[in-house]
Design brief:
By secondary structure, this protein is mostly beta strands. The protein folds into two domains: 241 residues, Oxidoreductase, molybdopterin-binding domain (Sulfite Oxidase, Chain A, domain 2); 112 residues, Immunoglobulin-like (Sandwich), CATH 2.60.40.650. Helix content is 10%, strand content 36%. A five-stranded mixed sheet has the order 4-3-12-7-8. Strands 5, 6, 9, 10 and 11 form a five-stranded antiparallel sheet that branches. Strand 1 and strand 2 form a beta hairpin. The chain is globular. The two termini are 35 Å apart. The relative contact order is 0.16.
Length: 362
């Protein structure tokens, strides 16, 4: 196995912090992503917290501040289970970097997206126990991992609107795919914010603060924001650009892969599609003639309202090079944009353009 018990074929973008994504074949056809293939995005060294010593502080605009141990969470609140997909905001950044250079960011390809069954307690139940004050508008999360990506280095933090935090789907989770949460994925407890970029699902969470304003942590106020094309990220002030929250509608082709060789005739193409927040995937189309004609794919049943949709289509291909395209539509009627060039931004976030693969038919 590779580092942190991951598959040997993981595409590792960095060892410290450890950042890695699975190969497409590791995701293909799996409603749930095996833990050893689940993508990993970290910003500093992985904290190795002692579950017995771990405490969660809940404070800020609350009636009663709380200090909870792991047993308090497990026995004091009703446990909940849900299937949710997490997607890195930099997913498919490599395609943007092919349009124009992106400096200082990991070149994530098509698989910084994974799905698991999470078990924990609803954040809203914990907030109710603390009593949320009338001026509250946001809920901020803090963790002990220190990142040198911030200047000066600071611990990781993020926030979400109170309206999202009080949804029953947001969890403080200690279990992943029927296993104890691994250290690299946030043990002993992490936040799971379904439908939002993975950066808001804070790992190793030890602090929940109810606030009137969003978190001023670097990773909320500065890092995860879409900047205008002409802006130098090194000079961007906190609050510049568009803050990332709900995931943009996206899809990907996982099979066949680039440069694969297949037999001419009927060929099976498949992948995933994902719509963030409370939207759902309504349709996926596939083309093998560069978009002149499209064929509707078959959507597999969804594992839950916060999970991706896997899809397949059988297409006819002739001998020679083939370019397959895919595009998804969501429940609002929105369609993915065609070109990653039109979406380019200096940090390479939110590339949700039509995916393509180039293969050969014999």
């Amino acid at each position: 196995m590779a580092a942190w018990d991951k598959r040997d074929d993981m595409l590792v973008h960095g060892q410290d912090p450890f950042n890695a994504e699975p190969v497409p074949t590791a995701l293909y056809g799996h409603d749930l992503t095996p833990v050893d293939a689940f993508y990993t995005r970290n910003h500093g060294k992985v904290p190795l917290a002692d579950p017995e010593q771990w405490r969660l502080v809940v404070d800020g605009l609350v009636g009663t501040a709380l200090r909870l141990c792991l047993d308090d969470l497990r026995t004091g609140f009703e446990p909940r289970s849900l299937v949710a997909t997490l997607q890195c905001a930099g997913n498919r950044r490599a395609e943007m970097a092919a349009v124009r250079e992106i400096v200082g960011e990991d070149p994530w390809q098509r698989c910084a997206t994974s799905t698991a069954r999470w078990v924990g307690v609803a954040l809203t139940d914990v907030l109710a126990a603390a009593g949320v004050g009338p001026a509250a508008r946001h809920v901020a999360f803090g963790a002990p991992d220190v990142s040198s990506l911030a200047h000066p280095p600071q611990t990781y933090g993020a926030s979400i609107p109170l309206s999202k935090a009080t949804g029953p789907e947001v969890l403080l989770a200690w279990e992943m795919n029927d296993q104890p949460l691994p250290a690299v994925h946030g043990a002993p407890v992490r936040v799971v914010v379904p439908g939002y970029i993975g950066a808001r699902s804070v790992k190793w969470v030890d602090h929940v603060s109810v606030r009137s304003e969003p978190s001023d942590n670097y990773f909320q106020a500065t890092a995860y924001r879409i900047l205008p094309p002409q802006v130098d990220p090194a000079c961007a002030a906190p609050g510049n650009g568009i803050s990332l929250g709900p995931v943009a509608l996206n899809c990907e082709i996982l099979q066949p892969g680039d440069d694969d060789r297949v037999s001419a005739g009927p060929v099976s193409i498949g992948g995933y599609a994902f719509a963030g927040d409370d939207r759902t995937v309504a349709r996926v189309d596939v083309s093998v003639d560069r978009g002149r004609t499209w064929q509707q794919a078959t959507l597999r049943p969804q594992s839950g309202p916060w999970a991706w949709r896997l899809w397949t289509a059988t297409v006819e291909v002739s001998c020679g090079p083939v370019t397959a395209l895919a595009r998804a539509w969501d429940s609002t009627g929105a369609l993915q944009p065609e070109s990653s060039a039109a979406l380019w931004n200096p940090k390479g976030y939110a590339n949700n353009s039509w995916p393509h693969v180039d293969f050969w038919a014999d």
